[in-house]
Write a structure and sequence with these properties.
By secondary structure, the chain is an alpha+beta fold. The protein is built from nine helices and 19 strands. The strands form five sheets. A five-stranded mixed sheet has the order 4-10-9-6-7, with no helix packed on it. A five-stranded mixed sheet has the order 12-19-18-15-16, with no helix packed on it. The longest helix has 18 residues. The chain is elongated.
Length: 621
């Protein structure tokens, strides 16, 4: 009873506020990522956030992901795993020791972290931590039965819950014709994350790029679980949203408490163990362990033919035959509840992340012109210590902060998985406007394995520039020039996207900017702009508009130059405005006589002749 009371006390000790704060802290500790659009890359492997990483319409629905199937109720120990507050970034080498309960199989852990990165790229506001997926994976399947998965993350045998036939469980009639669960009568929860077929049909993902949505594949199931938990715009850093998300998986408050307890425990630290060696849980919510029937067998009614009848009394007593006392037998040992372990000597499959020893960069030249897609993809080959290719290795490609080149959807970091040849190929890379060399860094998350790939972005070129049309470019002082069209070509073909520099000069022999010639208007300070950078359009043409004549008449030149040697010189003429000559007098009209010119000018009041020097009276000889 004391143990049971202690167990209940521990369950109630997990503070929802603390757990929600832990989600926020874990989310904040992860750098932002971005991912490619919903299309698979050329190698057939899906980059994080690619392919089916889209939220189905309708949210989580009214039921639960598992159909409220049974789950494991084991709780973690009270001691803290590893170092307080430290969570591993990925599977590490060498394998770290610690409490067995804190160990997570390498491939299973890689799947949880990959799902976290994918959801963070497509739905960053959800704040999904991989430790929450680990908590659900623990109670649903014991981390895929202790990590019993193959190199691609598929369980070595299907993981199936009991038939949901309404007898102690929900009643869910078959919805998939047995395609996922092998049951054509009722549905069963399937795989390491225990999706029922009807939920998987909506939320199933192909996260490992093998062309299948397999609920028994830990990569597919973990990504589907992450997206399901984030449905409906949930923010898992908020306590109410976190609770709703977990309860949407299994509508049980005991389930909620158990998942939160494991989530908090994993948040304090974990370590990686080889696949197939993870600790298996024992207790289940239906009170029967993994080696016992899922439900107790109902006692069968005795057959009428075998029903015992009471003995009739003997008419006279008989002496009982002497009997030999039975030999004491050894007490029957209770059934063991120890988790199943691989037999001694059974080789443990090492996950790809731990087998890879080196990343070999590809030899293809990574070049492109500005604002175009690189002809070759960035690629590396994952090999082991013997130089053999390793499939299934997660490889992250990261662009430097200095470049404006981008992966699809504007991503600067993508993660892909190596194929059967060990080749991890990044999705198509597109150059930006900067013409420069840069380095792409490839690495294996959680390992100190890196490789560098050199890439170069070159400017677009035109070896010829020519004006379209031949009308004279003339304007009066202060007037506007007509629009000018120029065409750029490279090796005879139209050259789109070429940067062309236009400078107004004083003569065809000069490349210096003129001090008095036409301009492209004025800057904010009121100074004339006589140098301008233009760009040819998709048809290889550029239009020169807004050219204004200066205040000084004369002949000037508009010098156009482009990378690649293309040059054009256009003559600009500035003329004075036309002047209007004064009107000539009309000879048929006599001007009005003035007083001094009139021969009959009246005498002055004093009776003397006018003393004006302009008098019309001429002196006599």
């Amino acid at each position: 009873m004391a143990a049971q009371f202690g167990r209940r006390l521990r369950r109630g000790a997990t503070s929802g506020a603390i757990v929600a704060a832990a989600v926020a802290a874990l989310a904040a500790s992860q750098g932002p990522g971005a991912l490619p659009p919903p299309t698979d890359n050329l190698s057939g492997d899906s980059a994080i956030g690619v392919g089916d990483a889209t939220t189905p319409p309708g949210g989580g629905g009214g039921g639960s992901a598992t159909g409220d199937s049974p789950y494991y109720t084991d709780l973690p120990p009270l001691n803290t795993p590893n170092r307080p507050g430290v969570a591993p970034t990925a599977p590490t080498v060498p394998i770290v020791t610690g409490p067995a309960e804190a160990g997570i199989p390498a491939t299973v852990l890689a799947a949880y972290r990959r799902a976290e990165a994918s959801v963070r790229a497509s739905d960053p506001s959800c704040n999904l931590p991989w430790q929450l997926l680990a908590g659900i994976g623990k109670v649903e399947s014991g981390q895929a039965r202790g990590g019993r998965v193959d190199g691609n993350g598929t369980t070595l045998s299907p993981i199936l819950g009991p038939a949901l036939d309404g007898n102690g469980f929900a009643l869910i009639q078959d919805t998939d014709r047995g395609a996922f669960d092998g049951d054509t009568t009722h549905d069963r929860a399937v795989g390491p994350m225990q999706f029922i077929p009807s939920t998987w049909a909506v939320w199933g993902q192909d996260a490992n790029g093998d062309g299948k949505k397999d609920p028994n594949n830990i990569y597919d199931a973990a990504q589907a679980a992450g997206m399901y938990l984030c449905a409906g715009g949930r923010n898992l850093a908020i306590k109410a949203d976190l609770d709703r998300a977990i309860l949407s998986y299994n509508r049980s408050t005991e389930y909620l408490t158990t998942v939160l307890t494991w989530f908090e425990y994993y948040g304090r630290g974990t370590h990686t163990v080889p696949d197939g060696t993870g600790q298996l849980p024992v207790d289940r919510s239906d009170r029967f362990g993994p080696d016992r029937p899922l439900r107790p067998t109902a006692p069968t009614s005795p057959s009428p033919s075998t029903t015992p009848t009471p003995d009739r009394p003997s008419p006279k007593p008989t002496n009982p035959a002497p009997t030999t006392p039975p030999k004491p037998t050894e007490p029957t040992k209770p059934p063991t509840t120890e988790p199943t372990r691989p037999p001694v000597g059974t080789p443990v499959e090492i996950p790809p992340t731990l087998r890879v020893a080196r990343l070999k960069p590809g030899t293809a030249a990574l070049t492109a012109v500005t604002e175009s897609t690189f002809a070759q993809a960035a690629a590396v080959t994952a090999v082991d210590a013997a130089g053999r290719p390793v499939a299934g290795v997660s490889v992250r490609f990261e662009l430097p902060a200095t470049t404006d080149a981008r992966f699809p959807a504007g991503a600067t970091t993508v993660t892909v998985t190596s194929d059967a040849r060990g080749v991890a190929k990044a999705p198509a890379l597109r150059a930006g406007e900067k013409a420069e060399p840069f380095t792409i860094r490839a690495s294996v998350p959680g390992r100190s394995l890196t490789a560098e790939l050199k890439a170069t972005v070159e400017v677009r070129k035109a070896d010829a520039l020519a004006r379209v049309g031949d009308a004279a470019l003339t304007a009066t002082t202060g007037g506007d020039y007509a629009e000018v069209t120029v065409e750029g070509r490279l090796d005879g073909a139209l050259a789109p996207g070429v940067t062309v520099t236009a400078v107004v000069t004083d003569s065809a022999d000069s490349a210096q900017q003129s001090a008095d010639g036409p301009s492209f208007g004025k800057d904010a300070a009121g100074n004339p702009i006589r140098t301008k950078v233009l760009k040819t359009d998709a048809n290889g043409r550029l239009s020169i508009k807004g050219l204004v004549a200066g205040e000084k008449a004369g002949s000037y030149v508009l010098l156009l130059t482009a990378p690649g040697g293309g040059t054009a010189k256009l003559t600009l003429t500035v003329t004075e405005p036309a002047t209007t000559p004064p009107a000539s007098p009309d000879p048929t009209t006599d001007p009005a006589p003035t007083a001094s010119e009139s021969p009959s000018a009246p005498a002055s009041p004093s009776g003397s002749a006018s003393a004006s020097p302009s008098a019309s009276t001429s002196p006599t000889a």
